[in-house]
Amino acid sequence: MVGFASSDIGKAREINQDYYSIPKPEDRLQLFILADGMGGYNGGEIASSLATASAKSYIENNFDKIEHNKEAILELIKNAIEYANMVVFEKSKQEPNLEGMGTTLDICFIYNNKVYVGHVGDSRIYRIRGEIIRKLTKDHSYVQQLVEDGKITREEAEHHPKKNMLLKALGCTAMVEPDLRARNIETGDILLMCSDGLTNMVEEKEIYRVVRENPETAAQVLVELANAAGGYDNITVVIIK
Questions:
Q1: Which residues are registered as beta bridge partners of 160?
Q2: For 49, what's the count of Cα atoms within 13 Å in the CB-facing half-sphere?
Q3: Which domain holds residue 187?
Q4: Helix, strand, coil % in the chain, rounded to nearest 5
Q5: Which of the 8 DSSP states describes residue 12?
Q6: pLDDT in tens, 189-228
Q7: Which residues make Cβ contacts (< 8 Å) with residue 62, sequence separation at least 6?
Q8: How many CB atoms lie under 10 A from the CB of residue 62?
Q9: Does the pLDDT at position 151 exceed 90?
Q10: How many domains is the chain partitioned into structurally?
Q11: Nearby residues of 175 by Cβ (< 8 Å), 6 or more positions away
């Protein structure tokens, strides 16, 4: 698997609080991470970079210590997210100007024809297979809860005024419970990770079209489309082919 990524401040923000990590050629593990930070002037930027670095180092340092089966790998990702949560939470307590900072966190770990996913927040991971784009994560948001409770439709959710209100984020509380799942990867599959700066601006069908057209340039093209639609937030896109 190979990764392509693009991140942009957008047109309305003063700082880019998104952060991502994709494998370098010399890296042994196929580990892709994306975080969208929040809180204060510098808080979100610190939370997202700290969470990404902490989760990455935890997985890299502990992968050889576990059994390499599905259950053990998912537990490793869970522990990595809980460790990252602790690091960000403790940092926010140490510095008054960082109080209340937090971040979304998404992990895609590719191993033996499977993608292992860890997820907190409302950044998203999609799998594109043939003519189908499928979301592998569930937004931990107030609006998503309204949809699940049958109080609003998915179409109404797209333009709801409280669309950005999170019910769960990393680093805001002492404990966090991530969503975990493992899915098989087939030849030709493409994975897309993104912050809500993309999905709030560009519809899924357009995301699908751009990625299928050219996965290698899709990250940059999608960032440009989000900016053209208003660019109200930071935008980060990671494509895994």
A1: none
A2: 7
A3: 3-240
A4: 35, 25, 35
A5: T
A6: 999 999 999 999 999 999 999 999 999 999 999 999 999 9
A7: 76, 79, 80
A8: 13
A9: no
A10: 1
A11: 82, 85
